[in-house]
């Protein structure tokens, strides 16, 4: 009980009674943050998780000095009188905003009583911050995905109406609208493909791939498959890779996707740099892959958020390029599944480098 504290007598309640050390040991062993209180709300003990989560307990003083949560204090007071257990949700703002629920549990030493004034009160906390954050992220993701799909869908529906009405007998307008509709349909289809890829990779995140894959031919494959796009944009793709194999444990299709997404981004956003470099090398126990462009680069405030789903520096520009906002989220997930590290370096005006460090496979 070195880090946590226990009061051994119940003060000021007319019963100077010893706190049974077995009770203290029980609270100490409990994994959730827990406070032990007298029926009048004096703190008798706090276990280690409580000290870590809520800060040091003021043992021997009213619980209001340990916990700044008026609703919980009031519920403790009521439980001390009525003996009824309570569940209270509350937030703490210091040192950071967190959400908790507190279970206020009256304890009776004599199992026959179980009502009226309890002997002690146990206060057990559950930190809900992380779970609520995950819920919020899930809700945001669904809202974003629906919004991304709704926009092209609204456009297609609008043009269907126009084709049925005003543009019905105008072949020029009809062709123009059909082209736009076809673009929008392709956009929806790309988005659905990306969403499905992301969920598939996420599902396997905890199962790292086992096959040995040589990254050298994959980089050449991506360079070749993206060379028409590069040519169309007047960009030269330069590949620098060793002649010997650079092997990692991986899934070929996912690795191609990762390299493709990075090179495609370099071609989409860095085309005015006229040059994209793919470099692969073995360095110590790592395979290091880098994709560099010499375009406008990325301002530092965006860097930490680029791999978030649907985050774009410039939404309109990304859409013009056929982007879904999921490319780098997919890269991040594939890297994570391969136990690789992704880092992004950029200086505005000087292009951007995306670096992925894989553990080399020795087998
Ligand atoms: P998108 O489908 O929009 O390309 P990504 O997740 O691949 O989505 O990329 C997110 C955003 O990061 C892009 O919209 C763009 O603003 C920025 N970005 C990615 N790669 C580059 C790059 N090489 N140079 C400049 N900006 C980039």
Task: Describe it.
- It is a single chain.
- With 363 residues, the protein is of the alpha+beta class.
- It has 3 domains: 3-127, Beta-Lactamase (2-Layer Sandwich), CATH 3.30.450; 129-206, Signal transduction histidine kinase, dimerisation/phosphotransfer (DHp) domain (Helix Hairpins), CATH 1.10.287; 208-363, Histidine kinase-like ATPase, C-terminal domain (Heat Shock Protein 90, 2-Layer Sandwich), CATH 3.30.565.10.
- Helices cover 42% and strands 21% of the residues.
- The protein has 9 helices and 13 strands.
- It has helices spanning 21-29, 48-54, 70-82, 129-164, 171-203, 215-232, 252-269, 315-320, 327-337, and strands at residues 5-6, 34-38, 43-46, 86-92, 98-107, 120-127, 212-214, 236-240, 247-249, 275-283, 286-293, 341-346, 352-359.
- Strands 1-3-2-6-5-4 form a 6-stranded antiparallel beta sheet, sandwiched between helices. A 5-stranded mixed beta sheet has the order 8-10-11-13-12, covered by helices on one side. Strands 7-9 form a two-stranded antiparallel ribbon.
- The radius of gyration is 30 Å and the shape is elongated.
- The two termini are 48 Å apart.
- The model has no long low-confidence stretch (mean pLDDT 92).
- The structure holds adenosine-5'-diphosphate.
- Adenosine-5'-diphosphate is lined by residues 265-266, 269-270, 293, 295, 298, 306, 312-314, 318, 323-329, 352.
């Amino acid at each position: 009980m070195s880090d946590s504290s226990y009061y051994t007598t119940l003060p000021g309640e007319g019963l100077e009674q010893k706190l049974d050390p077995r009770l203290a040991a029980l609270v100490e062993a409990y994994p959730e943050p827990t406070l032990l209180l007298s029926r009048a709300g004096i703190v008798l003990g706090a276990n280690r998780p409580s000290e870590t989560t809520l800060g040091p307990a003021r043992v021997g003083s009213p619980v209001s000095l340990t916990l700044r949560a008026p609703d919980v204090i009031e519920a403790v007071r009521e439980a001390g009188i009525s003996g009824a257990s309570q569940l209270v949700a509350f937030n703490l703002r210091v040192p950071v905003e967190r959400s908790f629920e507190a279970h206020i549990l009256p304890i009776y030493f004599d199992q026959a009583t179980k009502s009226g004034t309890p002997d002690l009160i146990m206060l057990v906390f559950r930190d809900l911050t992380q779970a609520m954050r995950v819920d919020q992220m899930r809700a945001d993701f669904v809202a974003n995905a629906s919004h991304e799909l709704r926009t092209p869908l609204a456009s297609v529906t609008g043009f269907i109406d126009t084709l049925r009405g005003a543009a019905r007998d105008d072949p020029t307008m009809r062709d123009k609208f059909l082209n736009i509709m076809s673009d929008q349909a392709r956009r929806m289809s790309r988005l659905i493909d990306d969403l499905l890829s992301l969920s598939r990779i996420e599902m396997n995140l905890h199962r790292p791939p086992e096959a040995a894959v040589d990254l050298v031919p994959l980089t050449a494959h991506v360079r070749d498959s993206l060379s028409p796009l590069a040519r169309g944009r007047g960009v030269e793709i330069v590949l620098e890779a060793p002649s010997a194999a650079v092997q990692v444990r991986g899934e070929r299709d996912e690795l191609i996707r990762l390299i493709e997404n990075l090179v495609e981004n370099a071609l989409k956003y860095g085309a005015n740099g006229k040059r994209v470099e793919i470099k692969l090398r073995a360095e110590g126990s790592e395979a290091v892959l880098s994709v560099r462009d010499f375009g406008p680069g990325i301002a530092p405030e965006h860097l930490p958020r680029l791999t978030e789903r649907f985050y774009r520096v410039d939404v309109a520009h990304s859409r013009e390029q056929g982007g879904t906002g999921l490319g780098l989220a997919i890269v991040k997930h594939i890297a994570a599944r391969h136990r690789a590290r992704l880092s992004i370096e950029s200086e505005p005006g000087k292009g951007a480098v995306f670096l992925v460090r894989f553990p080399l496979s020795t087998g």
